[in-house]
Design brief:
The complex is a heterotrimer of chains A (257), B (381) and C (314). Chain A is α/β, with parallel strands linked by helices and 257 residues long. Chain A is 39% helix and 23% strand. Chain B has 2 domains: 30 residues; 345 residues, ABC transporter involved in vitamin B12 uptake, BtuC (Orthogonal Bundle), CATH 1.10.3470. The longest helix of chain B has 30 residues. The chains are: A alpha/beta (257), B mainly alpha (381), C mainly alpha (314).
């Protein structure tokens, strides 16, 4: 018996055209709760563009983005986040002049439930909520082994830890769908292995869905349940990792003809 | 509340109480002293509104990371509002001299209303203006600042004798507040208290989700959005909040000056009420440090005082003398020097904290020792 | 003696129409001056993405240079307006120095915020320095007519030669500049650097010198604008560049900042707006109207009339 489960993320014929250039065409995807799906393709294929559409940074020129059954086209980025999707960036975008823990806490702003009056007059509600924030933030940092650096400036972290902090920050938004844009970029094998562990830990712990853009094939094949391949904005293959690895179209796209 | 934070609060409260009591004592002891009355007290009044101006602009410039050049427009609104409302009260007979319970009520009321009115205008300006960033926001706030001053100029009740007896003019000669020397001494505590309250309110804002949100926006607006922060909301809120305090600074200014003139608030004015001077204070103190703004305000007050009244300045002749006759030149030079050689300003993003003072000094020393050791280690290799 | 209603109406229509034409002409003349100044803003912004707040003050520099070199020109037996050559040199020098001393070091080390603050500081320094140096400021200096007065009459409207000259010269300058950026190597280099600085470096373009040249040309243009301005209002004062510069900036934004034809379009529109507001509303509201235009443009279409919206790369 087939149950109609609402996918966490669904896109229908999603596409965007810049001027005359069709950056992404007819992108269709369904991601269900708890799944880890990979999005791969050669450089410039449009993967980050897809992410930008999935987070409201770009307005699609065709098709729709549906999150938990809600059509989100045209909404602003922070509204997308409120609906349950968060992302990391290809070039790390941390809040460099803020401390590690403040980076995480800032992502909790939308769920921080006190008003200006409470903040100014330091009501008990303020203290209670701030305490909860600190606990939750330290909790998240602990997953990534960053709790010892909570009060350091984000800019002072080594590269690998900055990437982890970005993921921690995205997690702090309480999202149901996490978009990771090349999280392993610039990492050595040890760091990549650690990252793998972290991804598995957060999947187990939070039961979230993850859509992952990555170039590191070892990571992708190892951790993704399903993979979509796009090239020149179009989906050229989709399926299980083993199938994708053998697909001639995929091989051709990566190696060129 | 963590123990350390609680201790910090207690320590701060004790010190603030000590300062206020100290001020009271000084006031009663030296109250009759001429120098005190004629020089120190007006100076403290001026420092007070300069501190509020600088700190409030820092909210937008240093913490939110946006350059607003219309700050003095909001101050003008506060000043004129306070002056005219108190004048109305005076003419309606609510009070006659600057004494008594009725007057104090009017005083406090005017300060609050000045802030609220300025905040309202800040909201109206902020909603369209904050859709822009960088250069464009700077120019548009400059434009709004000019428009505000222009409008005040053309209000038929804001000039000359004011209200019913008034006309559209650049100067307002009658001011319900404009304190004389004696009143300035009597109400000095009000100025100090208002300044402290404003600073505390700003600190509380920064050390909360609001401060975190706007610092995030400053560091990376796109990432802030992607972290769920409603950037428009927080930008407009901060702008409005900052305008509120500018209005209060204006009210204090109206207390300290019997005559108001819109030309004092003009952008091209060479005095200290133009928005560039406030920018100088914020940059000098450190964009992102409220303590820095307060300190810089006091420093710039001294600089301005020396330029206007210093004997050694008067003895300068020729070009140098001409230079000091145009204080804006000095301020602009200070600004460029700070921006080029120490863009962080005096304090950078550091906030002075009593309870952390000792620890911070130790940390700084340890850090420097470490850097020295690193360097030495590197050299010997 | 009674006038017939028809006569009165005809009379009113004539004055009405001639006022209209007069306002139009004043608007075009003002607009030409704004266009020249806006060109300088737009060229500099296009290449370094910085609003040179001090640009308006370059006009002041040009004006004063002319005032002081006019006697020299006369002594050499040349017409008074030859002093504009010295003004162009002076303005170009000041412009390029500003870039070398103030803007370039900040571009290397600072953020766009510090660059903006630096620009404001430079503007303040120029204005107040001029006021502080005894032979220059603070009092305005009135000069003699630069161009011969007189004009001609068309349909009850007086047209002065200075007006015609202003409009014609501005148009010529604009065409020359446009051709320069389209056809010459240096001009193309300027367009390249505006578009993509990194790529320009890779293509072997000397970015620093290109920027310097842009400043030189842009500032030199303010000298010509100063000439036109003085031709109409023969008085210099240290803050003469402030409002002029601000309105020209609005013009540049209106037309599309960074776009050369945009500066001309924007300049003319602003000139006309100011002229019509002065005639039909009031002169004190003219500045406010110009600013309102800025606000509306920046909110509705910040890229300007001729511009394209380019978002930030994420």
């Amino acid at each position: 018996m087939n149950e109609e489960i609402t996918p966490v993320l669904e896109t229908r014929h999603l596409g965007i055209t810049f001027g005359g250039l069709k950056a992404v065409t007819d992108f269709n995807i369904k991601v269900y709760e708890g799944e880890l799906v990979g999005l791969i393709g050669p450089n410039g294929a449009g993967k980050t563009t897809v992410f930008n559409m999935l987070t409201g940074v770009y307005l699609p020129t065709e098709g729709s983005v549906i999150l938990n059954g809600e059509v989100l086209n045209g909404k602003k980025t922070h509204q997308f986040v409120a609906s349950g999707v968060a992302r990391t960036f290809q070039n790390i975008r941390l809040f460099k002049q803020m401390t590690v823990i403040d980076n995480v806490k800032s992502a909790m702003t939308k769920d921080t439930d006190y008003n200006l009056f409470s903040a100014i007059f330091r009501t008990p509600k303020f203290w209670r909520i701030e305490k909860q924030l600190t606990e939750k933030a330290m909790d998240l940092l602990a997953i990534f082994k960053l709790e010892g650096k909570a009060n350091q400036l984000a800019a002072n972290l080594p590269y690998g830890q900055q990437r982890k902090l970005e993921i921690a920050r995205a997690l702090a938004t309480n999202m149901k769908l996490l978009l990771l844009d090349e999280p392993a970029a610039g990492m050595n094998p040890t760091e990549t292995a650690e990252l793998l562990e972290c991804i598995n830990t957060i999947r187990d712990r939070f039961g979230i869905s993850i859509l992952l853009i990555e170039h590191d094939m070892a990571l992708v094949m190892n951790v993704c349940e399903r993979i979509l391949v796009i090239d020149y904005g179009m989906t050229i293959a989709s399926g299980l990792p083993e199938e994708i690895a053998k697909d001639p179209k995929v091989i051709a796209a990566y190696l060129g003809e | 509340m963590k123990n350390r934070t609680a201790k910090g609060y207690i320590l701060n409260t004790v010190v603030i109480a000590a300062i206020l009591i100290g001020a009271l004592i000084i006031q009663s002891v030296f109250g009759k002293n001429q120098n005190f009355k004629l020089i120190l007290v007006p100076s403290i009044w001026q420092c007070c509104y300069l501190i509020i101006l600088a700190a409030s602009l820092n909210l937008v410039l240093g913490f939110l990371g946006q350059l607003s050049l219309g700050h003095c427009g909001f101050m003008a609104i506060g000043a004129y509002a306070a002056a005219l409302i108190s004048l109305a009260c005076q003419r309606a007979g609510i009070f006659t001299d600057a004494k008594g319970a009725a007057f104090v009520l009017v005083l406090v009321g005017c300060i609050l209303i000045a802030g609220i009115l300025a905040a309202l205008v800040g909201l109206l300006v902020g909603i369209p203006a904050l859709r822009l960033k960088g250069d464009y926001l700077a120019i548009i706030t400059l434009g709004f600042g000019m428009i505000i001053v222009n409008i005040i100029n053309n209000l038929p009740f804001a000039g000359q004798e004011g209200l019913a007896k008034g006309s559209a003019a650049a100067s307002l000669y009658k001011n319900g507040l404009g304190f004389g020397t004696a009143s300035k001494v009597t109400y000095l505590m009000v100025a100090l208290a208002v300044t402290l309250i404003c600073l505390i309110m700003m600190f509380m804002f920064i050390r909360s989700k609001y401060g975190r949100a706007i610092k995030a926006i400053r560091d990376d607006e796109i990432a802030a959005s992607a972290s769920g922060i409603n950037t428009s909301y927080y930008k407009i809120l901060t702008f409005t909040y900052s305008a509120f305090f500018a209005g209060i600074a204006g009210a204090l200014y109206a207390c300290a000056n019997a005559t108001l003139s819109t030309s004092s608030f003009a952008f091209t004015n060479g005095g200290i009420l133009n928005s560039t001077f406030v920018v100088v204070m914020v940059v000098l103190g450190g964009m992102g440090s409220l303590t820095g703004s307060a300190l810089a305000a006091i420093i710039m007050f001294f600089v301005n005082y020396q330029i206007k009244n210093g004997l050694w300045v008067k003895s300068l002749t020729g070009f140098l003398g001409g230079m000091f006759a145009y204080p804006m030149l000095v301020y602009a030079i200070i600004l460029i020097i700070v921006i080029m050689f120490r863009p962080k300003g005096i304090f950078g993003t550091y906030e002075f904290s009593l309870i952390n003072f000792h620890r911070d000094i130790k940390n700084r020393r340890a850090q420097r020792a470490l850097q020295k050791a690193d360097r030495k280690g590197g050299e010997s290799e | 003696m009674l006038r017939s209603p028809a006569f009165l109406i005809e009379r009113w229509q004539l004055t009405h129409v001639s006022t209209l034409i007069q306002t139009l002409i004043v608007g075009l003349r003002l607009g030409s001056i704004y266009a020249l100044v806006a060109l300088g803003y737009t060229m500099v912004y296009g290449i370094i993405r910085l609003i040179n707040f001090a640009h308006g003050d370059f006009i002041m520099v040009g004006g004063y240079t002319m005032i002081f070199t006019m006697p020299l020109a006369l002594a050499l037996g040349l017409p008074v307006w030859v002093s504009v050559i010295f003004a162009i040199l002076a303005c170009a020098l000041v412009g390029m120095s500003t870039e070398l001393i103030a803007y370039r070091p900040i571009r290397k080390k600072g953020t766009s915020m510090t660059a903006l603050i630096t620009a404001i500081a430079v503007s303040m320094i120029l204005e107040n320095l001029a006021q502080a140096i005894p032979p220059i400021g603070p009092n305005p200096i009135v000069t003699s007519q630069i161009f011969s007065t007189g004009g001609f009459s068309v349909a009850g409207v007086t047209m002065e030669w200075t007006t015609v000259l202003t409009i014609v010269i501005s148009a010529i300058v604009m065409i020359v500049l446009y051709e320069f950026t389209q056809k010459t190597r240096m001009g193309r280099a300027m367009r390249c650097v505006s578009e993509d600085k990194e790529a320009s470096i890779l293509m072997g373009i000397d970015v620093n010198n290109t920027i310097l040249l842009t400043f030189g040309i842009g500032s030199g243009l303010s000298a010509i604008a100063a000439l036109m301005y003085l031709g109409q209002y023969p008085k210099v004062y240290t803050t003469m560049g402030v409002m002029l510069g601000l309105k020209a900036f609005v013009a540049a934004v209106l037309g599309g900042i960074g776009i050369i034809p945009g500066a001309m379009v924007g300049g003319l529109i602003i000139g006309l707006v100011e002229s019509f507001t002065t005639t039909y509303v009031s002169s004190s509201m003219a500045d406010t109207f110009v600013f309102l235009i800025l606000i509306i443009v920046l909110i509705i279409k910040p890229a300007g009339l001729l511009g394209k919206n380019v978002g930030e790369k994420v």
